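Limitations
The structure tokens in this dataset are predictions for the assembled complex, not deposited experimental models. Users should treat interface geometry with appropriate caution, especially where small molecules or nucleic acid strands are included. An illustrative entry is reproduced here so readers can see what is and is not provided.
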Amino acid sequence: MSADDYKVLVAKDIADLIPVFMKNRHKELEALRVALAAADFEQLRQLGHRMKGVGNSYGFNHVSTLGKSIEDGAKSGDRAALAATITEYDDYLSKVQIAYE
Amino acid sequence: MRILLIDDDEDLRNLLSRYIRGQWPDAQIDAYDPLERSMPDESFPLGSYDVLVLDYMLGRGDGLEWLKVLKQRADCPKVLFLTGAGNEIIAVRAMKAGADDYQRKQELTRDRLISSIRELTATEVERTVSPELAARMAGHSLGAKVHIPGIKVLHLIGEGGTARVYLASREDDDEPLVVKILRQEIVLNKKALERFMEEYSMVERLQSRHVARIIGHGAHQNNVYLVMEFFEGGDLSKRLAGKPVPPPEALKLFRELMFALGDIHEKGILHRDLKPQNLMFRRDGSLAIVDFGIAKDISAADRTGAGEVLGTPRYMSPEQVQGRALDLRTDIYSAGVLLYQMLTGRHLFDGETAMEVAMHHLNTQPAPLPEDLAHYQRLIDKLIEKDRDARFRNADEVIGFLARNFEQEKPEITQKLH
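Predicted assembly:
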């Protein structure tokens, strides 16, 4: 991913919602890891679906893209792909830069 | 106004509440977490709300099941159902289960949410309805009135110059479909009605995978309708979003467009209104052309009348601007303009007015492609030659040119749209 891919523009009037949003994303990352370790594909599918639904709404389009990958990977039971996507999610959350407009 | 939000995602509940309060500061919004609470029972004061916003996947529950149960109650308010993107069959089932509107979560914006709630509560919150809202409400009620055998018309999803567009479903299997209902002012216009019916008869006989599949057509009372396949991938304008498409992908789409033109031209049909909104994507990423509203059978007598100009100015050929007789090369020009836009992310010509843009097609030489796209200059030049005699003569010629010059640029994988 290029540096630009880690930049997210968020509307100022929802800036105060972002700390909770980010906290929930980190909790989600841990839940994904736990679910993958337990091979709980239904839980992975649900988590992926939720990421897909909420990411774009806040302007974090990559969260939605990764959510779709996780949902698809859970449906097909592809553990390697899921592990790679979760690693990418970790990387994304650690590098994402938020600007407010 | 009172709104009940049922969604298992805290962040989405927070965001929707913020959007609603931004529009209606006095609104009372109750967030309902289905992970902590079961479905509202009979004692729950559902009737005290004006709108229920209900998610499809509720974690432990199924929003569709909740919808069916809650809608059986006499006091159930209007329901805005939220579904995952690209999941039209769920939208179909929700509308059949009684949802009053639906939104795809991935496309849910502040404006769309507010617009939806405003429509659902119009009688409660607005004594005077704006003309736009009144028109949309009329469109919604029209869809409910039109009876099509085997088809249920569900929800207004778009409005064009000639027709209103509805999400619909086949009653047998809930397959999502699109129903276009011609505007009354067009039905009363004999020439426009003929064009609409031509769209059906021409497209039906095409039988091409590059063209929208027509399921049926007919009339009910005074309404003329057309039933066609639903495109889950949206249209090219949504995909462009003001940005360039990577060249290999742009060429792939352009090549598909050429196959589509080859198919329609072979049947003696010109499209004459190619534009991003008329190029649709199926779920598997394949492309099809739609909206032959102004298409015309090449072999038919010229019923447009001398000098009449139809088409969208940004993509019009010079001969179209002049109102001259058209042939296959007009679609080749428009396709070239589309390719230019895909490659650069910019329109070929801009202007303050439609007329100004149209005149550029006649008189202005386009700016050359940027240096990194210079490789495509010869292709673009030969597509958008102002003198049609110097242009590619047909789609086959273009496809041959692509094969000779760009064969190695095919994208590695076909991008699927979701």
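Some entries come with short summary sentences. For this one: The first strand of chain A starts at residue 7 and ends at 10.
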